[in-house]
């Protein structure tokens, strides 16, 4: 099985270098494709100076789903993995991925903090705290979520999905999980396919911090639920539960003096606006693509993602 590894990156040169070092050490025969957003930290020069990267794709978008699709477009393997730039694969990762893809359409594994060495703290998302994936039953459909920064697909599975939905700034992996469930594709979990996640540096080009965008969180949530399931009580209830939980959490911050009442109100306004706009756009998307892929903004819809490309294979 020929495996391609797509690494989307944005302003993470040092962590990307560690990611590439791990790939070179533990998966030396894989095709490595780096997709670089408009980074301002010298990422392009660092990648071009390496001899273990097969393709560097430069894009102008800062959206991870665009980067993922740009990498998928140029990948040559009959299996394609996505590994985020701040993740490091381990010695057992490659074997676990290849073994999992023998029987399953998709393989994912845990993400563990770099500083954690205990196998008991694996960052798993199982509902009971066990080492396993997050699973939900929505509208009678069993959905197994995969980790967007540590996942591998059979090529034909990504083809049938048409990649990731580029409408979404966040939540692209969860949206793809819903669509995989609709298509009855199996998502396998392999604990041995674990990666380590390195914490951002406070001196990173983007400040090493990511602020919570409440509007986009709920826009993405409403969009993917309405697009994949339509207007039904399940979608409304799940969205409402998320909103109530987050509202209570921010209210506690206000009581502790860590947030302001005006900020709480502004966040609420962003949530409502996000739900309305996301739900409306989800209905449009559902009407535009009635196929099992449910992806009107996928790989096949654009031909202008790459600004430039450096291909060592040529």
How is this structure best described in words?
The protein has 314 residues and is α/β, with parallel strands linked by helices. It is 40% helix and 18% strand. It has helices at residues 13-26, 43-48, 64-74, 93-103, 155-161, 172-182, 214-229, 233-255, 261-288; strands at 3-9, 31-36, 55-59, 79-83, 87-89, 106-108, 111-113, 135-138, 141-144, 150-154, 187-189, 195-197, 306-311. The two termini are 22 Å apart.
List key phrases describing it.
single chain; 314 residues; alpha/beta; 8-stranded mixed sheet; globular
Distance between the termini: 22 Å
The ordered string of helix (H) and strand (E) elements is EHEHEHEEHEEEEEHHEEHHHE
- Placed side by side, the strands forming the largest sheet appear as 11-6-10-4-1-2-3-13
Shape: globular
Portion in helices:
40-55%
Q: Kindly provide the radius of gyration, computed on alpha-carbon positions and rounded to a whole number of angstroms.
A: 19 Å
Strand content: 15-25%
Q: Note poorly predicted spans.
A: 116-130, 203-209
């Amino acid at each position: 099985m020929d495996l391609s590894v797509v690494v989307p990156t944005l302003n993470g040169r040092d962590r990307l270098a560690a990611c590439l070092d791990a790939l070179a050490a533990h998966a030396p025969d894989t095709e490595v494709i780096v997709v670089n957003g408009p980074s301002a930290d010298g990422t392009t020069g660092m990648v071009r100076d390496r001899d273990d990267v097969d393709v560097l794709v430069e894009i102008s978008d800062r959206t991870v789903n665009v980067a993922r699709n740009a990498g998928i477009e140029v990948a040559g393997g009959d299996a394609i993995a996505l590994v985020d730039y701040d993740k490091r694969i381990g010695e057992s990762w490659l074997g676990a991925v290849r073994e999992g893809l023998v029987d399953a359409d998709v393989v994912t594994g845990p993400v563990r903090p770099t500083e954690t060495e205990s196998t008991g703290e694996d960052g798993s998302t199982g509902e009971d705290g066990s080492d396993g994936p997050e699973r939900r039953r929505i509208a009678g459909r069993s959905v197994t979520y995969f980790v967007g920064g540590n996942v591998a697909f059979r090529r034909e599975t990504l083809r049938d999905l048409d990649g990731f939905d580029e409408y979404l700034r966040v939540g692209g992996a969860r949206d793809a999980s819903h669509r995989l469930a609709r298509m009855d594709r199996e998502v396998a979990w392999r604990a041995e396919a674990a990666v380590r996640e390195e914490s951002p540096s406070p001196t990173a080009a983007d400040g090493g911090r990511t602020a919570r965008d409440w509007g986009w969180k709920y826009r993405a949530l409403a969009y993917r639920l309405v697009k994949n399931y339509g207007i039904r009580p399940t979608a409304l209830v799940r969205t409402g539960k998320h909103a109530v939980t987050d509202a209570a959490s921010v209210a506690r911050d206000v009581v502790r003096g860590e947030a302001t009442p005006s900020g709480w109100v502004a966040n609420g306004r962003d949530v409502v606006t996000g739900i309305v706009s996301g739900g409306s756009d989800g209905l449009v998307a559902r009407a535009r693509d009635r196929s099992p892929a449910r992806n009107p903004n996928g790989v096949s819809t654009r031909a202008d993602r790459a600004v430039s490309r450096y291909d060592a294979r040529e």
